[in-house]
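We emphasize that the prediction below concerns an isolated chain of 107 residues; any contacts that depend on oligomerization or on bound cofactors are therefore not represented. The input was used exactly as deposited, without trimming of termini.
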Amino acid sequence: MITDHDKVLETAKDWLAQGHQVALATVTKTWGSAPRPAGSQLAVRADQTFIGSVSGGCVEGAVIAEAVDTIADGKPRKLSFGVSNDQAWSVGLACGGQIDIYVERID
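Result of the prediction step, given as a token string:
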């Protein structure tokens, strides 16, 4: 059985084989009413094409922007979004939970 998680990784592998640069964002920790569970992933190409989800749409835009920066500079990022975080409110994480996301370039 192929899961959404498998589709993200398979697509990222295909993109790499096609010559695209790719970053992978992974939910590493959640608290409260988080929109997606730990282990959820989002693969992003340098042109901002993406597959998967780390927040059900709440903070994807911010994560995609960070992923593109990670592709450009090669530096992994640890992101945190939550209801007490002004950035989370501005990007739409109003569900009452908190999520930590790790973003890394993959080769």
